[in-house]
Design goal:
Number of helices: 4
Number of domains: 1
Helix content: 25-40%
Shape: globular
Structural class: alpha+beta
Distance between the termini: 24 Å
Number of strands: 2
Strand content: 5-15%
Length: 124
């Protein structure tokens, strides 16, 4: 568990057990992209690219229409993920996590920072 993942859970107010495997792929891909550019990932930057979504009670993230596409070939599913599921003790997660009730998710309207240096880089 990283501070960034904890920040995502805190900001969107859901429990890690409610995050779909594909949602975690998008979160970790964002982390790898930031690290490859020598940047620390932030929730604010993440929100520039992704919107929270809920499907069948599990949360994930969809790319915002206005954002630059950073993940070209998104996996469609992980059929065998349940066989690799494991439990984690609550003490090892450094944030308070809420169980969020599935419901309406308001669309965020963040301005895309097209003039920011980190956003303009061709390889980001």
């Amino acid at each position: 568990m990283t501070n960034f993942v904890g920040g995502i859970l805190s900001y969107y107010k859901f429990h890690i057990s409610q995050l779909s495997p594909l949602g975690m792929v998008r979160v970790q891909h964002f982390v790898f992209t930031c690290r490859s550019q020598g940047q620390d990932p932030t929730v604010e930057w993440f929100r520039v690219f992704y919107q929270l979504q809920c499907n069948l009670g599990f949360y994930s993230f969809a790319l915002l229409d206005t954002a630059k596409k950073i993940l070209i070939n998104t996996p469609k599913s992980y059929h065998d993920w349940k066989g690799q599921f494991f439990y984690t003790r609550e003490e090892v997660i450094p944030v308070v996590m809420d169980f969020r009730r599935p419901g309406t998710i308001e669309k965020e309207t963040l301005a895309v920072p097209k003039d920011a240096g980190w956003y303009k880089q061709d390889d980001y």
